[in-house]
Amino acid sequence: MATSTLDPAPAAGETAPRLAAAPSMRRSRTRGAIIRHCGLVLFGLFMLYPLIWMAVSAFKPSHLVLTDPSIIPTELTLENFINGWMVGGFPFWVFFSNSAVVAVSAILGNLLSCSLTAYALARLEFRARNVYFAIVLVTVMLPMHAVIIPQYIVFSSLGLVNTFVPLILPKFLATDAFFIFLMVQFIRGIPRQLDEAAAIDGAGPFRVFRSIILPLMKPALITTTIFTFIWTWNDFFGQLIYLTDSSVFTVPIALNALVDSQSQQGTGTLMAMSLLSLIPLLLFFAFAQKHLIRGIATTGLK
Length: 302
Prior knowledge:
Layout: H1 12-57, H2 62-65, H3 79-84, E1 86-87, E2 90-91, H4 92-123, H5 129-140, H6 148-157, H7 165-168, H8 177-188, H9 192-200, H10 205-216, H11 218-234, H12 237-242, H13 251-261, H14 267-297
Antiparallel strand pairs: 1-2
Helix pairs in contact: 4-8, 4-11, 5-8, 9-10, 11-14, 13-14
């Protein structure tokens, strides 16, 4: 005769404390979640306050920007955008186009040169490869100010000052060691069996790089694109050194010129143009943030 194997029902004395503790545990977790979310909201507002203040000040009259620090404006105007649109005799869209040319060229230069350099350091076998890679890593710790004077002397002797060449040419020479290191770490994670299989089929190093390595490097390439665009668009020091004519000014240099020309009462004008200069960055980051997070998670920064 079959016998039942069901466990005996727990005693009432055992379930009562658990049933009584369950609601209190849920309330405790709910309170903890509310406190964490409130803290995150307050921290987010604290971090966004300068951006919010700048956006509000862009629509305030210049005489109220510093005298009326409230977030809710008492008077709105568009005169700051009208007054700041012309800088040095040129409309502001000229500076946007100059920054776009420099940023896009820098992206292309870094993608081409850094990917080739990283592939050579990660895959090709040649003498002193580790020494070259160590030199690349050392340049990461070398401040820009240590090399800016020799670079300026070279470009000045070639007559390239006041052009975009000093800002673009180094990108095609793999001078951004951070991206080289990023791509080297990513390529080292790609199985070498893929290279060996391609070599058996007769593919050379460049064919392996173009047909196998490069398509698999998409996360690292996207990360390089995003960081290069942000850093180039916001660069001020290098562009200030090489660009002296208003016709080739980029957005950061134009904002600096706006401060000089409107230093008496141009705070609202500066806020208005600064707000416009942030729009490309915000749009670019909004569309690329998913790829940025994925790229960081799958490259050498993880």
